[in-house]
Amino acid sequence: MYIQSRKMEVWWSMQPEAGLCEGNSVERKIYIPLNKTAPCVRLLNATHQIGCQSSISGDTGVIHVVEKKEDLQWVLTDGPNPPYVVLLEGTLFTRDVMEKLKGRSGRIAGLAVSLAKPSPASGFSPSVQCPNDGFGIYSDSYGSQFAHCKAFQWNKVGDGLAYEDFSFPIFLLEDENETNVIKQCYRDHNLSPNGSAPAFPLCAMQLFSHMHAVVSTVTCMRRNLIQSSFTISPEVVCDPLSDFNVWSMLKPINTSRMLEPDDRVVVAATRLDSRSFFWNVAPGAESAVASFITQLAAAEALQKAPDVATLPRNVMFVFFQGETFDYIGSSRMVYDMEKGSFPVQLENIDSFVELGQVALRNSLELWMHTDPMSQKNETVLNQVEALLSTLEQSSAAVPTVVLRRLNQSQPLPPSSLQRFLRARNVSGVVLADHSDSFHNLYYQSIYDTAKSINVTYPAGQSPEEDLNFVTDTAKALAGVATVLARTLYQLAGGASFRDTIQADPHTVTRLLYGFLVRANNSWFQSILRPDLRSYLGDGPLQHYIAVSSPTNATYVVQYALANLTGKVLDLTREQCQNPSQVPTENKDLYEYTWVQGPLNANETDRLPRCVRSTARLARALSPAFELEQWGSTEYSTWTESRWKDIRARIFLIASKELEFITLIVGFGILVFSLIVTYCINAKADVLFITPREPGSVSY
After folding, report:
1. What's the confidence (pLDDT) of residue 546?
2. Average confidence score pLDDT of the chain
3. Start-to-end Cα distance in the chain
4. Which is nearest to 363 in space by CA: 333, 413, 399?
5. Backbone angles phi, psi at 75, to 5 degrees
6. Rounded distance, CA 462 to CA 518, Å?
7. Which residues are CB-contacts of 657 (< 8 A; sequence separation ≥ 6)?
8. Is there a contact between 64 and 209 (Cβ–Cβ < 8 Å)?
9. Under 8 Å between Cβ of 601 and 6
10. At what angle do helices 552-565 and 505-516 cross, to 10 degrees?
11. Residue numbers of the chain with a pLDDT score lower than 50
């Protein structure tokens, strides 16, 4: 039985964002829904399941706030009213604490985690210490001395929490106001003096996050196949993680056919995605965003070089999706290249330059990582040496970047280049701000935000002023982008205009603001199609690959690349959407996009326009699912479970005794009602006399 509390109604009515006091339904008077939460969901690969779930009807427990480790004793042993839903302070969300809670799952109904403010100073990374282990170039049979991060752990602060399986639901509380409402409810109803048992009613929380998939990808995909084979309306239980890679060419190529074998292409690559413990909360500032923003700025700078059209070699910019989950995007592109399903082939690749994590440099240093195994081939060794020399020459006139070489016996960090090296010896380099272990203390976590890479703004500025304010981080990344653009120019065969190529810090700062602070800004609105404007929210974009694609971030990166490197054409909307009507245009060479455009002089209407570019999307779905090799050890096999209902709410709960008494009383009333009804029905002819028909009257 649930008891209504007037106090709780008052608390919620004071919250400006609640919007839940409309109507007079019984449910609204009993429950307070929590609208700004993020769940931990179940993911699966070829052999395991990870993540969290609730029972099918949701899990309910008495709320207990844990602000220090000593508070755990109550929920683990002392508390008289289990199960409990623990409201855990963000600083205590560690592997040590979670192992204790996991070991007493019978007393734990669920977990609600509040954000730590400020971020934990010692760092927090729920990822593993050796990311993507087993899916890169190093294995027990090739480069065994580097396999499984034997040289050193790349992510030293990683505790692997995101790769554990929990039998109870875990939610992130994203709104401080909602967290305060829960704590107030706890203080008013659950907090008793001197450690005595609190009196009923107690404040409780109910968490719904039941997952449909279990065991592994092999099991859930087999169930999907059986359902689709024998059922008209199959109920799918899991979906492969998938999205799209974004790619473009410096000089347009005909995408309807393959490049000639002697056509040479320089590849500039980086990743688009990140993750955290919680579903679709993946800010990825240092893990991904800083590097792909740097590459976008480099693409813009290189496109402005006067002699681009006459360079002997082409440049391909690639933004890989799903790299967090065992290199989904890069392994798919390599697969397509090998199968002839992509216009550029592996044989066309001249060199490969990848941006890793680049925003947290010490003393301006940027480290050049190469692969020691492929350099045992003398030809590759010479090519890599030439590549490093080109990088050093390109950075000589950029005072904000100091390139450093590493010992030739050091392995590559986790990178997309590893997937290309598995298929072919390529001369490649990975640029990163770390020489060995990551500088990023929040790798793939909820705290890998704008603040973690020192993106801050003066107080009192308007959103438009913040958008155009050039931060120190933007200046630093613009320097890296300049080095990258000049290097690509030289690798493509250019020489005359190398030192004039310069990345624009204003471009970098607008991209940082849009991806990490506020996506719904004037510049992002101007570069998107009209039907995509709803994709931009008032907060930062998230970079989890997901299963419904393209994701918001993928679209924004594609259109940012198109607008930064493309050309505005004087075409109507109809011509832009169907360029075959225009004799001078060719859809095999270019992509055409009708975008909203900037605001007019009065700032009342937009000036839409047609942008022609080479920015395109390519499928980022692991080949394992095309080949139906769900237990593959060669390709990523990650899937995401489906669910029907994810929500959280708080309410007051009565004692078991009162619930039992209420049940008995209710049952007694039911029985009494049935007896009364039976008696009335049995004596109906006595109790209810039917009046006679009035007789005929004669006069």
Report:
1. 86
2. 93
3. 70
4. 399
5. -80, -25
6. 12
7. none
8. no
9. no
10. 170
11. 1-23, 699
